[in-house]
Amino acid sequence: LNPLLQAMESEISAAFDSGEPEDVLSRAFKLAVTREDICTLQPRGWLNDRIMNFYMGLLVERSKKEGYPAVYAFNTFFYSKLSSTSHKGVKKWTKGVDIFEHDVILVPIHLRIHWTLLVVDLREKTIKYFDSLGQKGDHICKTVLKYLEEESREKRNIELTASEWTLHSMGTEEIPQQNNGNDCGVFVCKFADFISRDKPIIFTPEHMPYFRRKMVWEIIHQQLL
Predict the structure, then answer these.
(1) SUPFAM superfamilies from the entry (predicted)?
(2) Which of 14, 158, 178, 223 could form a disulfide with 183 if both were Cys (CB 3.0 to 4.6 A apart)?
């Protein structure tokens, strides 16, 4: 291993092993990530909301650089609130933000014991649902399209034409699938990473242990490698 990788490895191991669970290892995006949060990135760990939201924050930050699509990410509590209350329950969430000025909107979704991702591409007028267990999310796509219609009407006074939009749940042959019961959060983060770079999704379940360690370093240093 080259010295840089060795330094990174020892730092990652230290994040898991030394110190107290409540130690804060990174602060940004109005979030404080503790050692306990970071430890969800250990093998077979189940990623929590704080790790998911922090990583989405890193993707949004990167999207401000030249050459990247403009990305907006909702937090992990958005969809459950939307689905239980409709648009009026979440309309304050975009106060001072025009989500329609972005290219891509990421919606990480927490389904009780599973993470999935919904992606709105405003350039293509598509809503795609990514599930690493291959379940369909057509109703989730419809719920978010209805939200976009109401948001557009309310914030911009513009009617969206629903018939111009394509809604699609990604099939198991289109995106990689997890081969265990605990990598769904990492899959969601990496789906979002590749999509927010306009790159084809080419990783496999075998990459998950590497992605987990890489994410530890990225979160602690608040920068994506």
Answers:
(1) Cysteine proteinases
(2) 178
What does the alpha-carbon distance between residue 39 and residue 85 come to, in Å, rounded to a whole number? 33
The model carries a pTM of 0.93
Q: How far apart are CA 81 and CA 89, in angstroms?
A: 7
Residue 1 placed within a domain = no
Q: Is residue 141 part of a domain?
A: yes
CA 140 – CA 167 distance, rounded (Å)? 10
State the residue range of the domain holding 73: 6-221
Give the Cα separation of 165 and 104 in Å (integer): 14
Sequence-separated (6 or more) residues with CB below 8 Å from residue 5: none
**CATH number of the domain to which 19 belongs:** 3.40.395.10
CA angle 65, 70, 74 (to 5 degrees): 120
3-state secondary structure of 219: helix
Q: Per the domain annotation, does 32 fall within a domain?
A: yes
Q: Active-site residues: which are they?
A: 114, 131, 184
